[in-house]
Write a structure and sequence with these properties.
The protein is α+β, with helices and mostly antiparallel strands. It has three helices and ten strands; from the N terminus they run ααββββββββββα. Strand 2 and strand 3 form a beta hairpin. It is elongated, with a radius of gyration of 30 Å. The N and C termini lie far apart (about 90 Å). The structure holds dinuclear copper ion. Dinuclear copper ion binds next to loops.
Length: about 190
């Protein structure tokens, strides 16, 4: 029997047609329930997310970064905070990090505080778990420990424009003894050649 004859045979109360229609209806109900469940999931998760803002969001005005506040030029680089813990402050801009060379101690927790002046940037530091995004208007902050002294590369890892691939900084991890000696004689440390 060809398909057209099969459809014709269904007309006029063929029991096979009744079975097929019932199956179609059941399937329609199941599909409708699946769609309703997916819509409900979207609404519930959307409401949940909007009601739970991320913890500890710190904002900063990217238009006045260079003029006033924590990220002015003279405040960039590594320094010791009031409790004697090393803190690195840096900014990212198209297409460089400031400072270009960062000094940190090995074997001590180091806190990074960074932001972007223009586009979305980010960085990783080789041989460590440092891996962050830098978003204009927000301060990115994290603490990590470098296990061993050495030279590390710190490339930008968010595509930020035509100069993205040339955007990186150097990180010099030095023994804690040397770091504390340097930190006692200078307010801000960096290894940018003068
Ligand atoms: Cu900055 Cu890619």
């Amino acid at each position: 029997m060809n398909p057209v004859d099969a459809i014709d045979a269904g007309e006029g109360g063929d029991p096979a047609e009744a079975v097929a229609v019932a199956a179609e209806k059941r399937w329609g109900v199941v599909v409708s329930l699946i769609i309703l469940m997916l819509l409900a999931m979207m609404v519930v998760t959307g409401l949940h997310w909007s009601g739970m803002p991320a913890a500890a969001v710190e904002t900063v005005d990217p238009r006045t970064l260079h003029i006033a506040g924590e990220f002015v030029d003279s405040n960039l680089g590594t320094s010791l905070d009031a409790d004697g813990r090393p803190v690195v402050r840096l900014i990212a801009q198209q297409y460089s990090f400031e400072p270009q060379c960062i000094v940190v101690p090995a074997d001590m927790p180091v806190t990074f505080r960074a932001t972007s002046t223009d586009a979305l940037h980010g960085f990783v530091i080789g041989g460590s778990n440092a891996n962050v995004m830098l978003v204009p208007g927000f301060v990115t902050s994290f603490t990590t420990t470098f296990a061993t002294p050495g030279e590390r590369l710190m490339p930008c890892h968010e595509f930020c424009g035509t100069g993205h691939e040339a955007m990186w900084a150097h990180v010099q991890v030095i023994p804690p003894k040397d770091f504390l000696a340097q930190a006692s004689s200078a307010k801000r440390l960096s290894c940018v050649p003068r």
